[in-house]
Design brief:
With 335 residues, this protein is an alpha+beta fold. The chain folds into two domains: 4-180, Ribosomal Protein S5, domain 2; 183-323, GHMP kinase, C-terminal domain (Alpha-Beta Plaits, 2-Layer Sandwich), CATH 3.30.70. The protein has nine helices and 14 strands. It has helices at residues 73-90, 112-127, 134-144, 148-151, 199-209, 213-232, 236-255, 266-280, 304-312; strands at residues 5-18, 23-25, 30-31, 35-51, 63-66, 69-70, 96-102, 156-159, 172-176, 183-189, 286-288, 295-300, 319-323, 330-334. Strands 1, 4, 5, 6, 7, 8, 9 and 14 form an eight-stranded mixed sheet that branches. It has a four-stranded antiparallel sheet with strand order 11-12-10-13. Helix 2 packs across helix 3 (134-144) and helix 6 (213-232) packs antiparallel against helix 7 (236-255). Bound molecules: ligand DP6. The site of ligand DP6 has 16 residues, from helix 5.
Length: 335
Amino acid sequence: MPESKRAKAVAGTNIALVKYWGKRDTALNLPATGSLSLTLAGLGSETSVRFAHDAGGSDGRDRVLFGGEPAWPLFANRVRRFLDLVRALAKIDLPAEVATVNTVPTAAGLASSASGFAALALAASRAAGLRLSPAELSALARRGSGSAARSIVGGFAEMAAGTRKDGSDAYAHSIADENAWDVRLCVAMTAAGEKTVGSTAAMALTERTSPYYAAWLSTVPGDVAEAKAAILARDLARLGSVAERSATRMHAAALAAEPSILYWNPATLAAIATLKELRAGGTSAYFTIDAGPHVKALCVSADAAKVAAALAATPGVVRVLTVAPGPGAQIMSED
Ligand code: DP6
């Protein structure tokens, strides 16, 4: 391969409407069930990767920058382990320089690992001289973070759990692209700062200790099918009720773990109440909640300003972002 090839990629984060919460294999990061999500415009990650003899740090290891600064060790090591997968695939043995900039508040339950590993998978594979198919790229991104597999795809994406042991059939594909349905997600941030328990650890604890874990898993395939049908019919009320029950059942399973995992805060509940009031008044908006206290409301674009204003006026909500569906991961530049 040519020395010093650099590739830069961008990916949007995604929010699951049918959640992924549990693994069938931790080594290959295979999900226990499918999931379904919406990739977002504007909120995401830009990542550039260069493999070269001189790209590493003074210790010869991959140099990992985040927001222009050396990344913290936990993050840097997660990136290095991911780069090892790419080096093995491409049969190269060069250190890399990786620079990531996020437009998502990191680790705040806004799924920055989803856009981060999707952008990294695309940039690193191209910089290493690989040309992966969308399915292969999605399966590669999954190794970094399960939700990242879905950010390879724009708009509404379905992630397959797959049945193969090697994980080659556990990747995301498109249900409807980012222009197919004029919906918005109003993200109500209900706290500043980092979440308390990361999703990987919380998922593992739920699998190990929650008496509701098996019941949770049993609900997911039906919810994926129902959500898919609702998207194809552009039926917001149907999609919204699946999204709400998927989120509450995922949180119920986590809440029943030992020790209990509770992501919600008083403003989370207040925001849910706001959406129920809006619905009672005839404005359709439906919540989902990830591994954090923030509330994301799904509505049609014509209602987004009203929904965002109601959420912003909710006690404890510190900020509301209104986001449109976005494209899948893309290459920004290569040289
Ligand atoms: C609540 O994809 O962060 O956002 O595969 O362990 O990295 P790992 O987990 P991650 O989990 C996402 C959990 C979720 C639901 C979802 O996005 O489906």
